Amino acid sequence: MTLYSQYSDDDLIRLLRQDDISAFTAIHSRYYGVLYLHAYKRLSDRDTVKDILQELFIYLWDQRRSIEIKGTLQAYLCTAIRNKVLNVFKHEKVKSNYITSFINFEETCHSTTDENLRNKELIALVNAEVSTLPPKMRLVFELSRDSNLSHNEIAEKLEISPLTVRKQVNNSLKILRARLAPHFLLLLFLTIGICLGIAGS
Known about the structure:
By secondary structure, the chain is an all-alpha fold. The protein has 2 domains: about 1-90, RNA polymerase sigma factor, region 2, helix turn helix motif (Rna Polymerase Sigma Factor, Chain: A, Orthogonal Bundle); about 110-200, Winged helix-like DNA-binding domain superfamily/Winged helix DNA-binding domain (Arc Repressor Mutant, subunit A, Orthogonal Bundle). Helix content is about 80%, strand content about 0%. It is built from 10 helices and no strands. It has helices spanning about 1-5, 10-15, 20-45, 45-60, 75-105, 115-130, 135-145, 150-160, 160-180, 185-200. The longest helix is centred in the middle third of the chain and has 33 residues, at about 75-105.
């Protein structure tokens, strides 16, 4: 392996295309640490970073004979890891937006008895999490959601500033998104079922 560590990137790629596992190991050793730091600075989640690095190097080995590397190997790998990080951000944003949407969605769908039961289960899940919010935060959130009051109206009612109301609502949404994230697939599955049923009714 000491010999391989002295090879240039071009030599390692050439050997990699010839199914040389030692060349692959040398590339992995040479760039894993750099790529890890590159991704971790943006994600700050060790497990996620390890997962995307594993995906990248599995792809590199699986596609070793056909992979096209334009420019340097380092540039190729950095671009690949950057794209994977962006995909993580995109996925998390979609998930976060979906959960926020559902929190505000609640009873806007009208459905059949069976679908309505599923909808109530989802609403109960959200309400259970809302009930665990700090009292003042919960009050502000419920006035915004249930009473449909504006931030200014809530501020006047509670004798606090609109900025405080806005912060309380935003903080409550962040907490709920985090707590409801593990249920994301269930929420998505059931809500799709509900809305498909509405569309077909």
